[in-house]
Amino acid sequence: MIEKMLVTHGILNSSKMKIQIVLLLMLLGAWPTIAQDTTIYCIGDSTMSDKKEPEKNPEHGWAQVLAHFFTEKVKIDNRAKNGRSSKSFISEKRWDSVHTSLKAGDYVFIQFGHNDQKFKDSSRFTNPHTTYRHNLIRFVKETRAKGATAILFTSIVRRNFNEFGTLVDTHGDYPVVTRMVAKEYDVPLVDLEYLTEILETSYGPEASKKLHLHFEEGEHPYYPEGIQDNTHLSKKGALLVAELAVKEIKSFELPLSKLIGL
Questions:
Q1: Phi then psi dihedrals of residue 118, to 5 deg
Q2: Is 257 helix (H, G, I), strand (E, B) or coil?
Q3: Stated pTM of the model
Q4: Tens of pLDDT, residues 43-62
Q5: Where does CATH 3.40.50.1110 sit in the chain?
């Protein structure tokens, strides 16, 4: 059909070689219109997830604001959900939903650990050295099988200063295991635990409250009774954490690094 059309319009006079050249030029010309945007799927917990009523709600997940840092060629599909561990994300078929949608060239940002340590909840708890480790490996392997790229993230720190002004760890071995999996399987790692530790300590025990949700009774209409939350992020905190993550990714030798707007 195409060959007839080319002959009819005088584009082709004889050889098959000319057909191949013309078709190649046509394909090259059409490439910009058929190229797909890159999708980043975010899987994780409430420190990462989208929040309801963002125009009113002061709480923001850091993946909720990621789009601010990438070009228009990147689509953020944030599947992170409040209260989920690596175990419950799988058992609730949330990972299956992401995996089904994945295509070659996409990315999966993986951050778990906050809820994996909930030892009083068997539906969420994972041993960091066994189930948690193998869940991370599963995410990585199944992402790669689709031709997509996995990036691992350690959990952001909690604002947990002691009486001496020292920020004290609350995540135990989970970030350690994340680093080990990243090394063993050669996975790009954004060490958010380290980066946010520096961020929190740079603000100090008092000013770091601005990175989280600290409101007295009657101070904010969304929390009329007040709130003292040292785990979840304010919009300011979310933007700063997302910026730290993106700056780290920019240093990686990945196609995604070229789509950062910083």
A1: -75, 80
A2: helix
A3: 0.86
A4: 999 999 999 999 999 999 99
A5: 37-259
